[in-house]
Design goal:
The chain is of the alpha+beta class. The protein folds into two domains: 52 residues, no CATH class; 31 residues. Helices cover 21% and strands 29% of the residues. The chain is built from two helices and five strands; from the N terminus they run βββββαα. It has a five-stranded antiparallel beta sheet with strand order 1-2-5-4-3, covered by helices on one side. The longest helix is centred in the middle third of the chain and has 14 residues. The protein starts with 7 loop residues before the first strand and ends in a 15-residue tail after the last helix.
Amino acid sequence: MNKNKKSLFQYDPEADVLAWEITGRPIEYAKEAGNVIIHFSKNHSPVLIEILEATKLLSSAVGILEKSGIKLPKPISAQFCACATPADSSVPVL
């Protein structure tokens, strides 16, 4: 677990899961909503957020941002293009 106060992002390309560890508190329970799982502490604070099928979500987000005229750095738009797959080694580990 993340013992310091900084958030930690991790990406598992084999499972295509993006995890955002918000705090290092122990996880008490989790709730799932679609492709998102939020893990909570005993006092109901979010501890960890997991995004399943992360490349689909990120590809969609990049497409929406680009269509609305927001310019993204080339590495982001190239790595999360619609053709990216979980096994694609170009997807970054955060």
